[in-house]
């Protein structure tokens, strides 16, 4: 396992270099430069920071987080692989890929340092581009508050006593500018005495309309390992997700268009257009990236069973969820 | 004033998307629409629109009074269209064996304590708590529920009828 390092001195623009193992991350006004043994990869700084924010916030998420067609991470739940070209047909065929494994906590620490150092005042990597300031140029302040938001996970259901609370105006969670017409009414609850903890309902659409982040699923209801993860989507998913299991989408409002590519090679397989009420599976052998022209409500439905990655990887389970 | 209009779906009005194939089989995506499914269902049929091993999401047409149901685990209902009352009873004796999975249909309202009820509309989510018996009631125009639960004896799988099969 490798050690992390941050340069003692910042570059002329005010940004520090950050290293772990054979990887070194450098930023300039417009780009993130990822140096690795034998090469250098480059990404636009806004795309890089938005992807990095998701990877950190999700704790490396399920399976593969592709920042683009070359760079990304694979979660092994305790350790994580950081790679160049691992899921790129040409890199693999020509043996140009590079992979290193890290303790998750070590890589998380480096990623958090990069985010803190490179995110300027006024730029929120969780926000849609239209809602936030510029990321370009020389270092200017920071936005620690935005990048240290905690992922929200309900134990049973949002709003139950002792469980995840509601989003309210008082707490700064106002209705998003693109969801002003989402009804904010409350369900009627008539719980008999003694059953206040069980007779429960809440306005799910209202809760999601007040989310201040995009492309960041938060768990709202659980049935054992079945998790409904609600998220508001606007602009483009900053990563391309290659899950290590099947996940499902339920489009609750508006429209998202998904690019579906092969999980291993990146070769295009399909486009999936989802509108209000549509339900679709994402097989375990694809990667997906969504485009949401207007802010929309999406339910990402996950199976949190920790044994699944091995069962899909070994071929015991088919990548598609149902045969018919 | 906001110029944005949020598009919801309903039984009367939904615009289904779909899978455009480049190099794949559309069946891999099991693509359906819960309003379309409910528009072709009998009241309170529990039609799976999502299945992840033992877990399911069922699309349910809410029309009139449902049978009494119960489960040995939590379930959740998201109202996608219409309005529904959900009435809860704590049975005097367990009506579902511990560890049984999926929704169980009861012969009728079980003897027990009245737990209360909720009235929920579009976008609202209700807990169907483990060990409780519950009944949906909707005297008005038909609605649509999505139920987050586990595959059970009342789950209906008719994938070939509800999913996109052709490119
Ligand atoms: Fe995903």
SSE order of chain A in H/E notation? EEEEEHEEEHEHHEEHEEEEEEEEH
Query: Mean of residue pLDDT of chain B?
Result: 97
| CATH homologous superfamily label of chain B | Jelly Rolls
For the record, the CATH class of chain B is Mainly Beta
What does the overall shape of chain A look like? globular
What small ligands are held by the chains?
Answer: fe (ii) ion
**DSSP strand count of chain B:** 12
- Tally of alpha and pi helices of chain B: 2
- Stretches with pLDDT under 50, minimum 5 residues of chain B: none
Largest sheet of chain B: 10 strands, mixed
Could you estimate the helical fraction of the residues of chain A in percent? 10-25%
Name the helix and strand elements of chain B from N-terminus to C-terminus, one letter apiece: EEHEEEEEEEEEEH
Strand content of chain B: over 45%
Give the domain tally of chain A: 2
Distance between the termini of chain B: 42 Å
Q: Which architecture name of chain B does CATH use?
A: Sandwich
Helix/strand-derived class of chain A? alpha+beta
What can you tell me about this protein's structure?
The complex is a heterodimer of chains A (324) and B (167). Helix content of chain A is 15%, strand content 35%. Chain A contains 6 helices and 19 strands. By secondary structure, chain A is α+β, with helices and mostly antiparallel strands. Chain B has one domain: Jelly Rolls, CATH 2.60.120.10. Chain B is built from 2 helices and 12 strands; from the N terminus they run ββαββββββββββα. Chain B has helices spanning 34-39, 159-162; strands spanning 18-21, 32-33, 46-52, 55-65, 69-70, 75-81, 84-91, 104-105, 112-120, 124-128, 133-150, 155-156. In chain B, strands 3, 4, 5, 6, 7, 8, 9, 10, 11 and 12 form a 10-stranded mixed beta sheet that branches. At the A-B interface, strand 10, strand 11, helix 5, strand 12 and strand 15 of A face strand 1, strand 2, helix 1, strand 3 and strand 4 of B. Strand 18 of chain A pairs antiparallel with strand 2 (32-33) of chain B, so a sheet runs across the interface. The site of fe (ii) ion has 4 residues of chain A, from loops. Residues 241, 243, 247, 288 of chain A line the site of fe (ii) ion (FE2).
